[in-house]
Amino acid sequence: MNEITIIKPDDWHLHFRDQDMLFETVPATARCFERAVVMPNLVPPVTTAALALSYKERILAARPAGSTFMPVMTIYLTDKTSVQDIKDAKKAGVLAAKMYPAGATTNSDSGVNSLESLYPVFEALADNGMLLLIHGEVTQKHIDIFDREKEFIDQHMVKIVERVPHLKVVFEHITTKEAADFVLSAREGVAATITPQHLLLNRNDMLDGGIRPHNYCLPVLKRSTHQQALRAVVKSGSPRFFLGTDSAPHAKHRKESDCGCAGCYSAWSALELYTQVFDELDALDKLEGFASFYGADFYGLPRNTETVTLVRESWEVPSNITLPNGELHCAVFCW
To answer: What Å distances lie between residue 96 and 128, 129, 189, 335, CA to CA?
Structure first.
């Protein structure tokens, strides 16, 4: 098959950053996605309805002329988030709240230290028909970084899902067989996003032959056995798993520093990379559900009606992109 047409997809997890960076990241995503769930981990974070609406306006101002792309806004949960904050967010049209364990990833220092104290907020999310999006890793330094997703499932995720049974939960950017198995066996109302890098790469691609900082992301790449488990669940066509790139831009000098930052910027090639995976799996018939249907259905939003056509041909992603501030960025991770 050399050509495939699918309903225009959505990206259910990405990072646009802010200010001048938006004039790079928003057009890159609007190129082939109709909607995107925008992560709120700015500095300072997007913690309220008012901040979310202001951020949305900045994103819309960066859209290409004639674009119909729409951001789906979220708020950032902290130890101080209140039930009223959730009610205000719902009233403003915010669809979800993102929970970062404090210190788990980029710009997560304001995240949650006491998860137990947030259960009234989780109940409020459920009561207001909003989703909880979870970066599912523990942050205890004595726990091996490759085990932190599994430990989060055991310590927290099972409890959240059981204690708030009417809450819709998205386990973001899962990386392990344990996470895939958890989502498959969980109650209704639990789903997960999967990134292109975790489908295409494993930890050898980050460490073998020297450290490759542009393949460093959080959650970190895992063993090939986990990569194969993720590929198996997308091939299965389960509606519990859908597209979320976690596209996360950083200036090149920050990625290549002696303390390189986490994140893979994939917006300019994300849909093509996912299509490559499904083609390798002989499962192109499952791509449309994963990319265009299951996320919209889970969020309770209408499916898109426009289509995009992908054609099999050779092309090369630029090795660097010049950002609005003049810095260079590696266009995409290496594979």
So the answer is: 10, 9, 14, 32
200-207, long-range: CB < 8 A, 24+ apart = 200/273, 200/276, 200/277, 200/335, 201/227, 201/333, 201/335, 202/226, 202/227, 203/146, 205/334, 205/335
Token pair 């819709």 is found at 168
Label the pairing between strands 307-311 and 241-243: unpaired
* Nearest-angstrom CA–CA distance, 98 and 117: 15
Per-chain mean pLDDT for the chain: 91
Enzyme catalytic residues? 246
Whether the Cβ atoms of residue 264 and residue 215 lie closer than 8 Å to each other: yes
Tell the residue number behind the tokens 């310590």, with chain if given: 155
With contact defined as beta carbons under 8 Å apart, do 143 and 156 qualify? no
Cα–Cα nearest to 30, from 73, 60, 74, 75:
60
Q: Say what the pLDDT of residue 52 is.
A: 98
State how far the Cα of 137 lies from the Cα of 157, in Å rounded to an integer.
Answer: 10
Angstrom distance (rounded) from CA 232 to CA 177: 10
Question: Which tens digit of pLDDT belongs to each residue from 97-151?
Answer: 999 988 666 656 677 888 889 999 999 999 999 999 999 999 888 999 999 999 9
Q: Identify which of 316, 298, 305 has the alpha carbon closest to the alpha carbon of residue 132.
A: 298
Task: Please report the DSSP string for 24-51 in residue order.
Answer: HHHHHHHTT-SEEEEP---SS---SHHH
Enumerate the β-bridge partners of residue 96: 74, 131
* pLDDT, tens digit (0-9, with 9 covering 90-100), for 155-199: 999 999 999 999 999 999 999 999 999 999 999 999 999 999 999
State percent of the chain over pLDDT 70. Answer: 90
User: Which carries the bigger pLDDT value, residue 288 or residue 257?
Assistant: 288
Q: How far apart are CA 97 and CA 132, in angstroms?
A: 5
- Secondary structure of 268-312 in HEC code, one letter for each residue: CCHHHHHHHHHHHCCCHHHHHHHHHHHHHHHHCCCCCCCEEEEEC
